[in-house]
Amino acid sequence: MTRPSQLFPALIALCSLVVLSAGCGPFGYIKKVARESSRAVAKAESSGAEENAPYEYWGSVTYLEQSKILMGYSEYERSFDYGERAKQLAEEATKKAEMRRKGQMEQHSDALATPEEAAPEAGASASGSAGGGEVKAGVSVGGGK
C-alpha cells in the first residue's frame, strides 16, 4: 500500500509540470516574448529591415518594448499579445527586407513627391485670390482681405 507521504512529492512534481507547460505568467513570458519575439526582432535587424522595411521593423521594436513594460507590471496576457504582435511585425519586416535586397520588391514612399509632381501646373495662378497675394505650394502668401 502506498503511503500519502510517498504520493506528495509525485503530486508536487506533476502540478509543477502542469503549471510550467501551461505557458502562464512569467514562464510563458520567457518562452513567448523573451525568446521568440526577441529572436524575431534580432533576425529582422540583421536582415537589414531597419532600412528596407522601416515601418514593420520599428513597429516590432516598439511592441517588444511595450511587452517588456507590461510584464514588469504583471500584465501577462497583454504582454503576450504585444509580444506576439512584435513577432508578427518582425517576421514581416524580415520578409520585406529580403525581398527588397533581392530586387523582387520596389521601395518607394508615397508621402514624398517627385520634382515633377511638386512643380505647380502651368495654368495655375493667383488670379483667383482676393488682394493679389502670391500662391506658393498651394498656400496663399501675403495678400489682403
Structure description:
With 145 residues, the chain is mainly α. 66% of the residues lie in helices and 4% in strands. It has helices at residues 4-22, 25-46, 49-52, 54-72, 76-102, 115-118; strands at residues 134-136, 139-141. Residues 123-129 have low confidence and may be disordered. Helix 4 runs antiparallel to helix 5. The longest helix is centred in the middle third of the chain and has 27 residues, at 76-102. It has a domain at 19-105. A two-stranded antiparallel ribbon has the order 1-2. It is elongated, with a radius of gyration of 28 Å.
Report the count of strand segments: 2
Proportion of residues in extended strands: under 5%
Residue share in helix = 55-70%
- Identify the strand order in the major beta sheet: 1-2
Task: Give a quick summary of the entry.
With 145 residues, this protein is mostly helical. It is built from 6 helices and 2 strands; from the N terminus they run ααααααββ. Strands 1-2 form a two-stranded antiparallel ribbon.
Question: SSE layout and pairings?
Answer:
Layout lengths: L3 H19 L2 H22 L2 H4 L1 H19 L3 H27 L12 H4 L15 E3 L2 E3 L4
Antiparallel strand pairs: 1-2
Helix pairs in contact: 2-4, 2-5, 4-5
